[in-house]
Design brief:
The chain is α+β, with helices and mostly antiparallel strands. It has six helices and 18 strands. It has a 16-stranded antiparallel beta barrel. It has a two-stranded antiparallel sheet with strand order 1-2. Strand 12 and strand 13 form a beta hairpin.
Length: 476
């Protein structure tokens, strides 16, 4: 196929663009001023000057948004002219007569290019059209089907701003070695339906409904994804998160937001993939609050340093908010400040302070660290925690995780967690080995082996527990 044929085919978009530009300027001219036909015909004709290079137009520069289009139309097709003073006046509104003259000049070039196509080239085009007729028909059918599907989705969509997301967790826990009364196989579940709404594309209004049960699995340590609720559907989350400029984001909540919900990262790699609750930093959970009004901000001091601040009020035992009406929303509360260093390299770290006037602790100071060596991650934390009655509730954790182990998206891990206890001389701990296996984007299975020692210091008491657990996660 000759160069002329390709030029004629390639010229069409450029000429169409020129026509759109001409017509757009014509509309702009009409919108700004109404001119009669008699006035136009009585005006002196403008003598335009033919140019062979866009550089000959003194008011056109490479930084102009339409420079490339003008360059092609002038230098490749020769159908754009300038004013006698070698200006183009691209921002000037044009008349319909000028539009017609410019369009006619470009169409003349198209006709000349088409005239250069010989019969052999036309025969080639027709042969290719016939040869790929079935494929073209298939593509046409697929496009028609897509258009029909899109129209149906638009007509029946749930919302233009709200997305429904679901999550279901099933936990089967089997005691391998436990004293009588603690050796029953248990099953727990948690189901969530999240309605996420965005008004700007960067904010999120979440309303979450949740149901689950609490069979006391892994007692007294508990599961990381415990449902609670005794099969009752509850309004578990109501919050709105939104950016304030480029470095600051905020969250305002009506319920269920507390301590680690405010932070950019809990740092340790086991928080989420592992099955037992001590896989996440325990000190976050030792403070009251979270069932009432809450608010927090995340401030990016630099690209890597982020400051998290949060405050949450709480409910009393009867579910009233606040527990003491005289204190308003500043009762039974918790507050947190955490400074994070988050990088794409080896080190992620944070220091945190938490205080409150409820729960089992008064305040806590903690340091968290994660070292990512590519094939494996070493992580953990240490927290100095003061109990409400002056007890020492210090806790710590250390372990190793292997991301993408035996497949992308999987994780294997092993960690040790020392759990603070209000009883003097009692230092319970837990060890867990787990493997989070993603079967596909919707289904994940996590088997785990868990050993815990309650360390009750009671004579004759069997303090050890050994469990096998399987967690299955469904999401959409």
């Amino acid at each position: 196929m000759s160069k002329f044929l390709w030029k004629s085919l390639l010229a069409a978009p450029a000429f169409l663009g020129a026509a759109v530009a001409f017509s757009g300027n014509a509309v702009a001219a009409e919108a700004s001023e109404t001119v009669s036909v008699d006035a136009l015909t009585a005006a002196e004709p403008v003598q335009l000057a033919q140019v062979t290079s866009v550089s000959e137009l003194s008011d056109v520069s490479p930084s102009d948004w339409a420079f490339t289009a003008l360059q092609r139309l002038v230098e490749e097709y020769g159908c754009i002219e300038g004013y006698p003073d070698r200006t183009y006046r691209g921002n000037r509104a044009m008349t319909r007569y000028e539009f017609a003259a410019g369009l006619n000049a470009c169409l003349d070039v198209v006709i000349q290019l088409i005239d250069t196509v010989d019969q052999d080239q036309l025969d080639t085009i027709l042969r290719l059209q016939e040869e790929f007729a079935a494929e073209l028909a298939t593509l046409r059918g697929r496009v028609d089907t897509l258009e029909t599907d899109v129209a149906e989705l638009e007509a029946n969509q749930f919302s233009t701003t709200t997305t429904l997301r679901g999550l279901g967790l099933a936990n089967l826990v089997i005691p391998f070695d436990a004293p009588a009364g603690a050796d029953d196989t248990t099953f727990e579940y948690r189901a969530r339906m999240n309605f996420d709404t965005s008004f700007t594309g960067e904010d999120r209004l979440r309303v979450r409904f949740q149901a689950g049960d609490n069979a006391g699995a892994l007692a007294p340590f508990g599961l990381a994804a415990s449902g609670g609720g005794n099969d009752n559907v509850t309004l578990n989350d109501v919050y709105y998160s939104f950016p304030i400029g480029e470095r600051l984001s905020a969250i305002v909540a009506a319920n269920s937001i507390v301590t680690d919900d405010f932070v950019s990262s809990t740092i340790v790699p086991f928080d989420g993939p592992a099955v037992a609750d001590p896989s996440g930093p325990v000190f976050y959970d030792q403070f009251a609050g979270g069932d009432g009004v809450a608010a927090g901000v995340n401030f990016a001091l630099t690209e890597n340093f982020i400051l998290d601040l949060g405050y949450a009020s709480g409910n009393d035992a009867a579910g009233l908010t606040p527990s003491n009406p005289a204190n308003g929303i500043f009762d039974n509360n918790s507050y947190i400040a955490q400074l994070n260093y988050l990088s794409d390299g080896i080190i992620d770290a944070a220091v945190a302070y938490i205080g409150g006037d409820g729960g089992t602790a008064d305040d806590a100071i903690a340091g968290l660290l994660s070292l990512d060596f590519g094939g494996f991650i070493i992580g953990g934390y240490y927290a100095a925690v003061d109990g409400t009655a002056g007890q020492d509730l210090d806790s710590w954790q250390a372990g190793v995780a292997f991301p993408d182990f035996l497949g992308t998206g999987n994780q294997a891990g092993l960690y040790y967690a020392a759990i603070g206890d209000a009883t003097a001389g009692v230092d319970p701990y837990l060890i867990e080995g787990y493997y989070e296996f993603a079967l596909n984007e919707y289904l994940t299975v996590t088997p785990a082996l868990i050993y815990g020692d309650l360390d009750t210091n009671v004579a004759g008491a069997d303090d050890s527990r050994f469990w096998g657990a399987i967690r299955t996660t469904f999401s959409f």
